[in-house]
Every structure is written in structure tokens, then in C-alpha cells.
Amino acid sequence: MPDVARRTWKGGVATLGFLAAVSVATLLIQAHVRHAEGAGSNLGAPFLPDDTAIPDDPVLREQLAKAIDLRRREDFDRMLDARDPGELIEHATLTEANFDQRTLGIDTLFVVGDELFGYLFRPENGWGSGGADRKAIDYTPRLRRIHQGSAGGPDAFGCFSCHSKGGPDGAGTQTQNAFFRGDGERTGGADQRNAPHLLGLGPIALLAHEMSVEVQAEAAGARERAKAEGRRVEQALTTKGVSFGRIAADPDGTLDYGALEGVDRT
Length: 266
Fold this sequence. Notes:
single chain, alpha+beta, three-stranded antiparallel beta sheet, 6 helices, extended
């Protein structure tokens, strides 16, 4: 075949191949569009407008004023702490005298806890481990990323450093995991935990404490009854509408936890 004819033939095949590819692509796109239209098309769901109601202007102005006031107070506190180191920690701690002198309201406790959560600790506050004279010029804290036994860290300068994902008082990323009860060197030998979110956990923790106290009281009552009556006593453990199974007490004071549900021991 002459070169000119061969080039012409190859060019025609390439053109036909290109046209065939374009035709197939067009058919696929049309089929996909028809399928999407028939199914109601959820392709734009992530881009749909948020139906959450926007607060009224007075509410927004009030929230903005509170945010500005908080920022000014924080800036002022940092300025005081720069001039007189230790000023910030005074706002973030409570002593026994504080509790003895007056009854602290929930708002005060929240502010103190919030200040402590955002405080950047320094060696003179107890941050890190090292020599006795923490204010010495050459003092250098010893850091241990992997905890050694029950002691370790520090993992950061402040609580918020590991609890920021999702906003203030949030969770931590994987790089912010803590390595508890290790050998001080190897990550594989430590109990790796991710920083949990903290906002709103206080009431839940108090509720769990109240439920634990009530269940323990029921178990103690069953033990006393078994001793007094000289027979085996079974007691259903229920608190705040939640059942944790049953517990049995023998006359000698021993407890049988075999029928517990949801908990190991009381």
C-alpha cells in the first residue's frame, strides 16, 4: 500500500474511533441524566441550602456582644498575666478557702473550669518534670510523650491543645492520642486513647455517679437483709428506670454478680 494511501487509511480509522468514543460518551451521559431525573437526583443534596432557622437580629446582636466581651476580657487577662505572671492561674483555680467562705454558683464554677481548660501551663505551675527549682533560668522540663506507668506526659501545654476538633471542648485528632500506662518508649506497649469531646459531659458524669450510688445502696441493702435473715436474698438493681439485672447476697455477706446486666460489679 502506498504511503499516502496508508496515512489516509490510518487517519480515517482514527477519526472513526474518535467519533465512536464521543458517541458512546454522549449516550452514557444521557442515560445517566435520565436515570438521575427518574430517581429524583440526589446529586445536589450536599449543596442544598440549610433549612436551619437563622436567629433574629436581636439574638445575633446579643451573641455577638457576648463574644466581643469575652474576647476583650481574655485579652485583658493576658495583658495582666504578662505584667504579673500568675494572674491567669488565679482565675482558673479554686482553693478550699473559696468553698469554705461562700457557696459557689454553677455559673462561677463554669467560668473557673473554662479558664482552667484554656490556660497554658508553665513550669512554675507544675508543667513537666524536672528539678526542684522550677524558676531557675536553665530549668528544662523533661517531656515524655509515652507515659511511663501511671506518670507521663505532659502531652501539651493546655487542655484545649488536644480537645479542639469540632470546636472548643471538642475531641482530638489521631495525632493527639495519649499513650497511657506505657514503658516510656514504645507506643505498642501503651494504652492508646483518643481525646474525647468534653462539652456537656459533666451532667452525664453526674448522672452516672448518682445511678452508681443508688445501685450500690440496693446491693448493700440486700447484703444486710441476707445477714439479718440468715438466708440468700436476691435483689433487682434498678435506678432511674434502667435495669441492671439482679444481684444475690448470701448470709456471710458475699455477693453473687452472675445475673448482672450492663455492668461488671457494683
